[in-house]
Structures are given as structure tokens and as C-alpha cells.
Known about the structure:
Blueprint: E1 2-5, E2 14-18, E3 24-28, E4 37-42, E5 50-52, E6 73-74, E7 79-80, E8 91-94, E9 97-101, H1 106-114, E10 121-123, E11 125-126, E12 138-140, H2 144-153, E13 157-163, E14 173-183, E15 187-196, E16 201-210, E17 215-225, H3 231-236, E18 245-256, H4 258-268, E19 273-274, E20 278-282
Parallel strand pairs: 3-5, 12-14, 12-19
Antiparallel strand pairs: 1-2, 1-4, 2-3, 4-5, 6-10, 7-8, 8-9, 9-11, 10-18, 13-14, 13-20, 14-15, 15-16, 16-17, 17-18
Amino acid sequence: MKVQISNKNYGGTFAKGFDDNGKEYFVIGGDLCYGESIEIVKYLNKDDIWINVKVDYSEIEIFSNHFDKHGLIDFNKLKEVISHSRPNRRVYELDGYWVFVENRIIKLVEYLYNNKLIDKSRIKITKYWKSTFLRANVFGIDYSNLLKKVIKKKEAVSSWYICEKKRDFNEGIYADLFIIGNFNETDLQIQLWQIIGEGSEVLYAHGLLDKEYINFNHFDIATHNIDPIIIPGFLYEKKRMELIEKKKWIRIDGQINEKHVFNLIKMFFPLDHLVNEFKEIKINV
């Protein structure tokens, strides 16, 4: 059934639509198509709620045949819906439905667009086009100098950087950083874990750096959910970090300038305030 969606913004994920007889319908996903005539169906067989057919699917996993083993999709498999898509709210068509960028990486995806990296990227998509991602202020270290030390001097590094400042959690949450840089035959492998407060979520970034050309040829970012009790064993005893859950958000393969890697890490790691009072604890690996 087709309805005409009104131009009134109600601030949610729905809008009002009207059929040819003037009958009113509440339409989920109508907010994506203000002023347009769209096809709708009943939402969960309810008589009073309808849904835009373009978003009428249960879970993002129905597209799993397009995903890699980490749940990411090659950007080139997505067809941007130019008439409805815009920066910071991209709309893509996949198998006849509309999908969206995960809220957590919206700004990173825009960076990929602006720096012509999007075509070599894989990203996390979602069925949700409106969501909120809130967090407390995070105090952490500016790690770009640490990475430059590893990259420019080609020094292997394995260190834990902890904040020596009194941790006043009324101000926000303090983030510690664990960095490993080791060499193999052709690449320098760099791994960073940012451990935020006493929480169970650890932010992770991984890159492979071509030692000869000083360019990254692979980069990915993820979140690791863990039991906080295992962190001391990971840091001090070199125990493997057992993960409750791992989510990859973006993967880029191909030549990537180190500047772009630094910028993407800064956008993903939630540093609101940089703190200079950090102590380096070297770890033998």
C-alpha cells in the first residue's frame, strides 16, 4: 500500500502518512522520506503501526552472506541511495533494502570519504538510522608521538602507559594505553589497546607498516569485551586476553598514509582531554 508522507518532523523514527482517502498512518521509517509517496506494510502484523518497506527486515544478519568473518562488508557491495543519503547519515541499498553506518563510526566513515579511502574499506553496517552513543569524559594520553617513535626510529616497543594523576571519577574516566610494536620480515606490526577506567570494554587498533616505504598497508579497529579481572595478567604476565566478545568496526587494505591512521585512531579512541602525567612501564615480550 502506498501513502504520502507528511513534511512534519516528529523527532522520532516515524512520520505520519496519508492514503488517497486522507486516512492517517503512523509509519516507522517514514522520517527517511518526508514529502514522498512510499510503499508501506503492517509492522509485526499490528493494525495501528506501519513500516517503510525499505527498512522492513528483522536483523542486519539477513545480509550475512555479504559479510566477512568479522561481520564487515566491503564498501563496494553497497549502493548509496543518493536521493536520501547525506554526510553523517548515509543510506545504502543492499538486496533491495536500506542499511546504514553504525553510529559509533559515522565520523570515521566520513573521514574515509573525504580522504578517498572508502573504496578500499570494509565497514560495519546496521539496520538503525537513528541512535545515541553517549559516554563520560575520557582523560588519556596523546599516543601519536609514541607511534612516531616506533615508526620513524623503527624501534620495537612494548609498554603500558598509565596515568599518575589522581583519578577523580567525578571529572571523568581515565584511559590507560598498552602498545606493542614488533617486527616481522617485511612489516612492522603495531597493536594498541586502550583500557578505559575499570570497565569491560577495551578499544583496539591494529596496523601493518611497510618498513621501507613508511606507509601502512593494513589497518583495522575493534572493541574487545573482557572480564576486567584479567587485565593485570595481560599487562604484567603476558597472558592472552580472553575475549567475551569482539567487534570489528572498520578494516582498510591497501596503501594508507600514516597521517590517516593517526587521525582514525584519534577519532575512534574517545579522548576528550589529554593528560601529560603518564608513566611508562616497559613490558618484556
